[in-house]
Design brief:
The structure is a single chain. The chain has 280 residues and is mainly α. The chain has two domains: 58 residues, no CATH class; 210 residues, Orthogonal Bundle (MetI-like fold). It contains 15 helices and no strands. The chain is globular.
């Protein structure tokens, strides 16, 4: 490789690096602006010009969100519903993926094609049906009413099915020769070999369920049953909207998932890669 070629490659790499940094700044600026605005007095927030740093630091808006709202109850609702969605989605998807991959039963192929077809249907299309069903079952304004309609994740079944297909048949045949049941084969062979996948998918589903807004917003009308993403819309004052208060509540709502992402970044990236591979 000639020095001229190396110099050209360095220029190209430098241009891509600068472009990437600019994109990262543009992406991160709204987050920075929201956090900084949440620690400004309200009169600084509504000024008609941009200030990248507050003149006066104040945490009164966070104190208001923590003491004058039901944010503790909203946190509990979000934890319960997010954990419920995660556990039920991952467990049912695991069983379905194993059954389609390893068992032979009537209608197996039709079920697999139905799952693939449902993957093409946007969840928002089913919102009206979900609402009518939950209303008929008297499950609105309840944890069950929030959790059940959010359990539809065919991509998780597809990921599990693909990984179970990759497990060598020798393991299954050896276990069958030892008279192991299907439960033993699943829990003692297949799940331990795919534990990393389960962990990654669980983290991503939990983050998705925590951040969900549309369905919890429609399914809940009582303030005490709201999740954190819906509850922060209730942080207002009788005399109008206080932007700093709403931003502080939004920061508190997003902090747990941001912390989870920072702690489990490698697992989250792995799960996103798996999902992208299936979609591709």
């Amino acid at each position: 490789m000639t020095p001229t070629t190396i110099k050209r490659i360095n220029w190209v790499g430098g241009i891509f690096t600068v472009f990437t940094v600019i994109c990262a700044i543009l992406w991160a600026f709204p987050i920075y602006w929201g956090i900084i605005s949440s620690i400004k007095p309200e009169d600084e927030v509504i000024r008609p010009y941009i200030e990248l740093w507050p003149e006066t630091l104040t945490f009164e808006h966070y104190w208001f969100a923590l003491t004058e709202t039901q944010i503790g109850t909203w946190y509990i609702n979000s934890i319960v519903t997010a954990v419920g969605v995660t556990v039920l989605t991952v467990s049912t998807s695991l069983f379905a993926g194993y059954a389609i991959s390893q068992l032979r039963f009537p209608g197996r192929t039709a079920l697999w094609w139905l799952i693939l077809a449902s993957f093409m249907v946007p969840t928002q299309v089913l919102i009206v049906n979900h609402f009518v069903l939950m209303a008929d079952l008297k499950m609105l304004n309840s944890w069950a009413g929030i959790i059940l309609p959010q359990l539809i994740h065919p991509v998780i079944i597809i990921v599990y099915k693909q990984f179970f297909d990759q497990v060598p048949k020798d393991f299954r045949e050896a276990a069958a020769m030892d008279n192991a049941s299907e439960w033993d084969i699943l829990f003692k062979i297949y799940i331990p070999m795919n534990w990393g996948v389960t962990t990654a998918l669980s983290i991503v589903i939990f983050i998705w369920a925590w951040n969900a807004f549309l369905w919890p917003f429609l399914a809940v009308t009582k303030t005490e049953m709201m999740t954190i993403t819906v509850g922060i819309t209730q942080v207002f004052d009788a005399f109008g909207v206080y932007y700093a208060r709403q931003l502080s509540a939004a920061v508190l709502a997003g902090f747990p998932v941001a912390l989870a992402y920072l702690l489990f970044q490698r697992r989250v990236t792995q799960a996103i890669t798996l999902s992208a591979g299936i979609k591709g």
